[in-house]
Each structure stands twice: as C-alpha cells, then as structure tokens.
C-alpha cells in the first residue's frame, strides 16, 4: 500500500496565504459591501477580544482546510495518469472541483435558506473559489 505524504511546510504556506487573501478580500476589496450585506454597523469596530478570537479561529480553520486539501490532492495522485498532469492542471482540477462540490452548494444554500443576497453570494463564493485555487496551486507546486 502506498503512503500519502503531506508537505507541512506547504500547508503552513497555504495558511499564511489564505490569511492574507481573506484580509484583502474582506477588507479593502469587498469589506464595506460585505459588511453592509451582512447587516453590520460599519462605524463600530469589534472588541479586541472578539477580533483576536476571530483571527485564531480563522488560522485554525485555514490549517484544517489546507491539511485536508493536501491530503485529498495526495490521494488523487494515485489515480492512473494523474502524475502526467502538470502542477497547474492538477491544481486547477483540484481547486475548481473542490469549490464546485463543497463550497458552491453551501453558498447557494445560504441564498435559498438563509435569505442571503446574491451580492453576498458572489462575494463569498468568489472568495471560496480564489482561496481553494490559491491553496491548490501552492500545494501542487510544493509536493514532497
């Protein structure tokens, strides 16, 4: 039985990259629009303890996201002819299919069941797509 090897340096790089991508996406790029769509009062800043808690949870979540995606990509490498794919093709396949199968349906569900706006849908699903593709690109190019 073949072993699955995870490059934990790549996982940590993904954690940092997604941290910065999330900051850029939800602050200067779409922060005000996202906050308005979420119904937040944009004149109030969160308490320091709430902010720190959010950052800690985000880092923990990013670690599990990167670790599981790395595991899945490593497991997919055992499929015949997968090793002949370029790292770019492998990353795009892993990223887009992961987004399409796991994130996109949940984001659609938020519109249908949580009455979230289509604007919020596009902001969030755009971030999810960018996040998983960036992670897959890093993982595919940093295979052990």
Structural class: mainly alpha
Low-confidence stretches are: none
Quaternary: single chain
Largest sheet: none
Overall 3D form? globular
Number of helices: 5
Radius of gyration: 17 Å
Mean pLDDT: 93
Helix % is: over 70%
Order of helices and strands: HHHHH
Number of domains: 1
Distance between the termini: 18 Å
The percent range for strand residues is: under 5%
β-strand number: 0
Quick structural gist:
With 144 residues, the chain is an all-alpha fold. 76% of the residues lie in helices and 0% in strands.
Describe, in plain words, how this protein is organized in 3D.
The chain has 144 residues and is an all-alpha fold. The chain has one domain (8-141). Helix content is 76%, strand content 0%. The chain contains 5 helices and no strands. It has helices spanning 8-29, 31-38, 48-76, 87-113, 118-141. Helix 1 (8-29) crosses helix 3 (48-76) and helix 3 (48-76) crosses helix 5. The model has no long low-confidence stretch (mean pLDDT 93).
